[in-house]
Amino acid sequence: MIIRVFAIFIFTLLILFSSPVYSLDTSSKTLEKYTKKISNKFTRTYCNTTKFGISYEGALAFAIGETNKEFKNNKLNSLIDYSLLKNSIVNDLENNCQVYDFEISNLENLKFN
After folding, report:
1. Domain definitions of the chain by residue range
2. Can you give the pLDDT of all 113 residues of the chain as single tens digits?
């Protein structure tokens, strides 16, 4: 009888104090929002820098540096599709800044470690 009570007590403690382990669950919606956030940051930085009179090359280098600095330590970086990110940035530049001659190849240095 004492063994049964002790076994039930131990079993109850194991159930109550076990911590569940969850896998990294990242939805496509989360990745999409994160990609859009990066794109918006780059676009705002690039547009504001060019409006201050800095050359396009300088604005590009500054926007890439600022974007890399802000997003370099996020856990979602390994899941980003960079081709979609670059296309999103180019589309945002066309729609928000009226920059129509921006090439995707300019964004080769936009990588997050």
Report:
1. 30-107
2. 888 888 888 878 777 776 665 555 667 888 889 899 999 999 999 999 988 888 888 988 999 889 888 888 888 888 888 888 888 999 999 998 888 888 888 888 877 76
**Signed CA dihedral, 32, 40, 55, 64: sign only:** negative
Half-sphere exposure of 50 (CA within 13 A, CB side): 16
Tokens describing residue 38: 């990066």
* Residue closest to 40 by CA, chosen among 85, 102, 105, 107: 85
Which residue is associated with the tokens 């009888």?
1
How far is the CA of 11 from the CAs of 56, 72, 104, in angstroms?
67, 44, 60
Tell me the torsion sign for CA atoms 86, 34, 112, 52.
positive
Cβ neighbors of 5 (< 8 A, separation 6 or more) are none
CA dihedral sign, ordered 44, 112, 56, 92: negative
pTM strictly above 0.85: no
